[in-house]
Structure formats: C-alpha cells, structure tokens
Amino acid sequence: MHSLQCVLQVQRSLMWGPMASVSWLSLRMCMAHSSLSSTTCPNPERQEVGARKDFSSRLATGPTLQHFLRSASAPQEKLSSEVEDPPPYLTMDELLGRQRKVYLETYGCQMNVNDTEIAWSILQKSGYLRTSNLQEADVILLVTCSIREKAEQTIWNRLHQLKALKTRRLRSRVPLRIGILGCMAERLKEEILNREKMVDVLAGPDAYRDLPRLLAVAESGQQAANVLLSLDETYADVMPVQTSPSATSAFVSIMRGCDNMCTYCIVPFTRGRERSRPVASILEEVRKLSDQGLKEVTLLGQNVNSFRDNSEVQFNNAVSTNLSRGFTTNYKTKQGGLRFAHLLDQVSRVDPEMRIRFTSPHPKDFPDEVLQLIHERDNICKQIHLPAQSGSSRVLEAMRRGYSREAYVELVHRIRESIPGVSLSSDFIAGFCGETEEDHIQTVSLLREVQYNMGFLFAYSMRQKTRAYHRLKDDVPEEVKLRRLEELITVFREEATKANQTSVGCTQLVLVEGLSKRSATDLCGRNDGNLKVIFPDAEMEDVNNPGLRVRAQPGDYVLVQITSASSQTLKGHVLCRTTLKDSSAYC
C-alpha cells in the first residue's frame, strides 16, 4: 500500500506591532493512490472508504496556502446572523454535528469555565448534543490550562486514561474523537499532536468558532488544528450556554488577553493581546442572565479592570488612562475608549437585585473613580482581589509588576478607607527567580500586615516563552520553594482566621447556592466578601410576606448571624429571607 501524506503548516512568530498575530494552522491529510485500508487510515470502517476518497479528491482541488493566509489575517468577529460558506474541501452537511454527543471537561480558571460555555454554544448551534456520560460520548473535549506545569501534567495524565477508551472504540467500530482546547493547545501545539497521536483536534482560545470545521476534518480520521491568536476575537456575539441549569450565578467575559507581560506569566503567549468586548454586548448578556433569574454575575478578564471599549468612535478621545497612584505600566499609556468604571456603572444598573463581582484585576487599574463606585452601589460586592505576588520590592521589580511594596500597601489603605468593611484576597508566588530568604520574609510580613480574607498561593513554575524563561534563572531549589510555600500558607491561614473572626456576631447577607457538600442538613452560600457561609436548613420568616414561613432555596438572599469563623468558612444561623435592597437595613 502506497500513500501520500501532505502537511500544510502556516506559522508566524509573535510580534507586538501593527500586524501582531500568532497563527499556527496544521492540517494533516492522508491521501491514498489506491484503495484505502485500516493500515493507512485510523478508522477501520469500510463504509467510510468512499467518503474518504471523495474528501481527498476535494482536498486536492481545495484551498491553497494563500487561502489560509487570508483566513489568518481576516477579522475574527462575526455577526450572529452571518452564515459562512464552508471551506472548499467540506460540504455544509459535513460541518453539522448530526446529533453526535460531546463530553466537555474544564480545567483551570474561571475564564476556562466561560470558554467551555462559549465552545458549547457554538457546537450546539451546529447540531451537537451535550452528554455528561463519558462512555456514550462521540467527542471528548478538554478545556485546558497552562499556567503551571502541574496543570499541564494533569492533562497528560487524563489523555493517558482516555487512550484505553479510544482503543476500545476503535475495536467496536464506534469512532471517538478527542480534542484539546484552550491554553495548552496554544502553548504546546505540535508536541501534543506528535506525542499523543490519539488527539484529533487542537483549538486555541481564539479558535472556538472553527470547532465545527476541525471536527469535520477529524471525522475523516485526520488530525486538525487551529491555534490562531486574534487581535479582535472576543466572542461578543456568542451567547454562552450555562452548563448548570440550577446555577444562581454566571461568568461574563468582558475582555480577553493581557498586555502586562509580567516576567513569570504565560498568559500573553497563550491568550494574546488585550481586547475588550463592546459595552452594549456585555449589557445585553447581563440582561438575559437577569431575565433567567440569576442573582450574581462575575465579570471576567485576564486584566479585567483594564477594560477599554474602543468600538464607539465618539469615545476614542485623547484622554489618558488613570492608574492607581504610584503604579506604572510596561507598555505605552493607552488613551480613549469606555473604561472599566463606565462598564461597572452600567452593569450595576441592569438589575439592583443582581450582585456584581469582577476578576482578575491588576492593582495598577484601581483609580479613585472605581473605588468610589464600588462604595456607592449596594449590588457591587465589597470584595476586591488584589494580586500582590510578592512582598519584596526587589522581587516585584524582577517580576515587572509596575509597583513597589510601599505603593501596594498605600493602595490597600486607600481601598479600606474608600470601602469600609471591604474583603481583600490576593495571589502570591513562592520561590520566584532570585528570591532570597530576606525577600521571602518580606512576603510573610506583607501577609501579616494586610491580613487578607482569602488567598491563592503557589510555588513558582517556570514557563517556556516567558521573559523569565529567556532572561532569568530558576535558581530556588524545589524543596526551598515548597518550604516557603508552606510557611506562606500557614501565615495566611492564621491571619485570615483573625480577619474572618471579626464577622462573628454580625449579620450578613448570603446568596444561597444549595446544600452543603459536607452535610445534608445544612445549606451553603456566599456573603458579600465571597466567603463561604454554612447554616442549618431551617424554616424562616420571609420579610416581604410577614407571617409566612419558608425554607431557603438556591438563588434566595437570606440574613445569617455569624457564630464562628475559620480561614475559609463562616458558620451561623439563618434569620430570614430578604432581598438585596431590603438587607441594608439589617447589615
């Protein structure tokens, strides 16, 4: 049997100029000169031979290199009403899911949760069905994370587990397609296709619109990938499909990518440059979520508070961006556009009974007008995530964070003065390049000084492509990183417990999420500061219906008197069911 394999690859390096883009398209096609058999193509089903011959013949007269170059440079935003012509080598029918079942697994941050909902929205419109049963899936898609080596290793392990399932499917002649989506697909590209031949599809964070085409190609038994990074893709016209019908909250992506280029961070290389959704499309999505009865929305972005909507020409003036006092950027100051304070103001007006949160911000983007707005609006949660990463000014400079320890502490004081009772959370990295024991001690002291309510702490994991990878040395031994991490965690828990214990005896508004995972007789919810609150599932008064006794349901606001606190959880007893508006008289 003689076969010909043709490989089309288009690859451009990452540039930060007017033509900035990363495109890497890999389409592997197997074309036989004579009859096809299971030795030349992965799929053993004889009835598909004719279809593959037809596919190969259409491919031979299909797209050229210029076709893909034009596609790579074309704007990614589409109107929801647009219906694109299929590529020359596929028919419209082949792009349809034909009720094949998709199983989605999500790993990593909240952005990946939102990406999963976007990907499913696109596939659902193409005729795919969703399944929660891995065994009956025709397509398995893993939405992946690359922020640390451990996150990637989790995916490699998962692929190893799925290998046996795919092998069994080949024997039963029921094909199974496996796809890697998100940051890991973007970062590792060829390594995934070459190391794991079982992977059929790769789709980067900006290529989810292309999933129907990629899966259609994979149905012919070939590997297909699109990891193009876009300058303008925000999926503004794609309405995410909520994965949990009983959910009380939702994530709304308002911007994608990051321009900060912190030395340790892979995000600019896996998610590209910053670009923001139009304010109008965000408000439309929030209104729809409100109409569905959801009670909480979290605005998402890699640098969420650097939001800048440049879609309306009349707002593209020469007004420079206001930064937090004492903070700088690693890029030229941006001008014009509708900023985060404007968006937060508009979103908070959609539904006074809907809580508004946002993550993940950068400390540099907290001008006074944002703090004042959070203070004034009852439905904007009095909780701010303020990633410090280190308590040492020397390490912060090496990280290219754009602030010193002193500027950060001053911002903390200003936040607490502007928003009384605010809850603070933070991120910290233990053992960054060149971190000394004195640097570590300064980070410990910052934890004690600020006394965060919540924290996310990790040992440093060097990532290829980052500035640290090219310019710094990962010289802190692993055992030292882990020891320092344990010390940070211990101090954080001590201080968080002290901070949270100040809530004991207070009455707090809690949004009920459902039953507690540890007790069938308790309910669980979150307070304004995003802390988990546990309380007994008991009858209570409804303040809007005097004399009526009710039990709390997911999506209800209840008042809870706090009786105990730990570093992660509050406990109390429920007083009554209320509304966000009426709760201000009690809290």
From TrEMBL:
Keywords: 4Fe-4S, Iron, Iron-sulfur, Metal-binding, S-adenosyl-L-methionine. Pfam families: Radical_SAM, TRAM, UPF0004. Transmembrane segments: none annotated. It catalyses: N(6)-dimethylallyladenosine(37) in tRNA + (sulfur carrier)-SH + AH2 + 2 S-adenosyl-L-methionine = 2-methylsulfanyl-N(6)-dimethylallyladenosine(37) in tRNA + (sulfur carrier)-H + 5'-deoxyadenosine + L-methionine + A + S-adenosyl-L-homocysteine + 2 H(+). Residues 501-576 form the TRAM domain. Its cofactor is [4Fe-4S] cluster. GO terms for cellular component: cytosol; mitochondrion. Its EC number is 2.8.4.3. GO terms for biological process: regulation of protein metabolic process. Residues 100-220 form the MTTase N-terminal domain. It is an enzyme of class 2 (transferase). Residues 244-498 form the Radical SAM core domain. This is Mitochondrial tRNA methylthiotransferase CDK5RAP1. The gene is CDK5RAP1.
